[in-house]
Amino acid sequence: MGKLGKKARKFAKKNLQSVLKHRRKTKLFFKKKSPKDGQNDVEETLDNPVTIDNGRSSESESIEITSLDAVFTENEEDEIANASDSDGYLSEDPSCPYAEGENGKTLEEEITTAYSAQNKKIHSDLATLKKKLDRLRKKDPEFSKFLESYNNSAEAFQNEDSYSDEEDSNDQGEQGEDNLAKDKAKFLSNDVITTWCQMVREDHSQSALISLLNAYRAASHYGTESVGHRIDNSETFFNILSFTLSNANDVFRGILKISSSSSIKEASQKLKKTSKWNNVKPLVKSFVRSTLFLLNQVTDSDILTFAMARIRTSLIFFIAFPSLIQRLLKATMHLWATGRRELSSASFLVIRDIAETLGPSYFNTCLSKTFISFICLSRVPEISDIENMQFLRDCIVELCCLNVQKSSVKADASINQCARILSWGIQTKKKEAVRKICSWEYVNCIDLWVRFISANIRDYDLQSLFFMTVQLVNGLAHMFTGPRYLPLRLKCVEWLNCLSSSSGNFIPLASLVLDILEYKVVREGQKGQNAFNIASVLKLPKHYLKSKSFQDECFHSAIEQLSSHFAQWSYHISFPDLATIPLIRLRRIHEITTIETLRRMVMRLIDQMEQNVDFVQKKRDDVPFSPLDHQLADSFLQLEKSSLNAPFTQYYRSVLDKACERRLHKRDQISLPEQKTLTRNAAKHKRKRVAADVSGSLTEPKTSKKNAAKPKRKAVAADVRVDAEDGPAVKNGSVDNKRRKRSPKAQ
């Protein structure tokens, strides 16, 4: 082969991939020589090319690292001071009656015998887990180092946050423990407690009150201390708790001459001015500390709900000890975030009273802690109980309404943080950015501030927050355009509708809803799936895209939001112009939709919009003013609007009623996260059964081909019958019928 010509060599040198590849490799090394003093700098830039920064990368990295609750954790101080002058034990009067040395099992002995079998099982499970951890430590030394570091940090955390009485290291605390050791441990029977309660209620006996408070301390510390009174049975235990929690507030108010009708602020001011406060203070402090310890010990939801309700009535005595308020807030926040609805409601009322009564500093603390707890609960891939999250969101909105000015500052910072994260995601298109934006943490944060703005924009100047939030929601809706993100886009439409209706400003959102209605993701006659709540999903699983239930749910939700949007402006003078383009697109959607029920739904909306267009057009043709007269234009059809008798208003009411019926119907059905769990469990069960069948076939003795064929056919028929009895994997009659048709053939 001859030598290449000059032009060919020139072309190869410029364009061949090997030449370009070699040029890219050697490009960094052929740079302008740096001065002698800067030789090391050149070497460092070549060794670490990532450190070369253009300004944007550092900003995006900081956005990636910063969490959404960073705004609330900047100035938060969560310090629990040494909150006690004593351990809570009070010196008793020896003349006060009590029972000594009664026979029979105590409550502790009864519980020990009842739960001995359960404890054995727990110990065996722990031993198994310990063996597994030991194996992992031997295999992976790095994992062993991680466990050691984790154990050290956990021990330090427990020592720091412990609520036990060992915190109190002062002289008076040691004196209280000595008093308790000197006194004989009493056996508390139900008769003794009843006698003390009667003496406190009728005779106002201070010695009986002291004994009862010590019994209440023993009940709240039950199971954590070996020294103390012995409680007879569970009836005595609940008698101590119920009487002390129910009557302590009235007893202390009666001694201090404080009226129960006075507000918390007035009562807290009168409290320390009374002459008897110094004498009653140790009793009140013992009650308060025992109650706080009870909140961290008891796990029964009913007892905790009752305790939180009584704490709210006795809040003035907790306020008298500022060092204990932090403990109360920490326990109450935990119960508010993790408890059932009744317990969460009772806990929030205590939080709200503290924020409202104790000034701006405690309001900031309560708001920060509730927001952080809400965001922490949102850091999950799926939320099964969406109604509980909405309840927690409404609680925070109600708390924000106590001080709108301070809350708006926090809201502004939080929305700016969300906007920076969205901008980072749009610029970089990274998977981490998309995952952070399409998450419950991000969505619930926006949802919270949308509800806050909607609740207060009529009474306060929140226009800057309003426009910033509208831009953020619009950007979020246009970032995710695929059919799997339709639930997220529907949430964005719902937020825009909420902001528009509360502020009275027009937001063009009809195109977003019509885009959702135009998606063609399923053909008629495909296999059905379980109905699910679209509000509990952000990104839809792929197999649900081909389900009829998904398209039904999207259509119903989209029609509901579109009806809400047009119902808001159905009496406006510009409604005929507003409805022109949406009507054209709705007719096109009606033509391409193949499912008859959905076609009827779209056709009904078209008819109602056309009727309302004709109604507004006739009224508009008769008005004497011009479009430039804004005052008269705003007063257009105000009488008809107040009567609520227009056809479109009646139609929108029917849409809301049907939506409410669908939500009530879905409460009885299984949610999408629960469906995934059941599907995984069913798959595991099926794999185990197949593995058992395979192992059984391997252990069977060898037989002839004729004899071996018969048992196989019987086994298949038996499997089909078992599947049919267990029920279908999908709640649909067609799947069950197919299985039942196969079973006789197999037999």
Automatic annotation (TrEMBL):
Any Pfam family: Noc2
Query: One Gene Ontology cellular component annotation?
Result: nucleoplasm
Q: Name one GO biological process term.
A: ribosomal large subunit biogenesis
Where are the stretches annotated Disordered? 30-61, 79-105, 156-177, 678-747
Classify the main location: nucleus
Superkingdom assignment:
Eukaryota
**Basic residues bias spans:** 704-715, 738-747
User: Which keywords fit this entry according to its UniProt record?
Assistant: Nucleus
Give me the stretches of Acidic residues compositional bias: 162-177
Instruction: State where the protein is found.
Output: Nucleus
PANTHER family, sorted:
NUCLEOLAR COMPLEX 2 AND RAD4-RELATED, PROTEIN REBELOTE
Family affiliation: Belongs to the NOC2 family.
Which protein are we looking at?
Noc2p family
Its taxonomic path starts at: Eukaryota, Viridiplantae, Streptophyta, Embryophyta, Tracheophyta
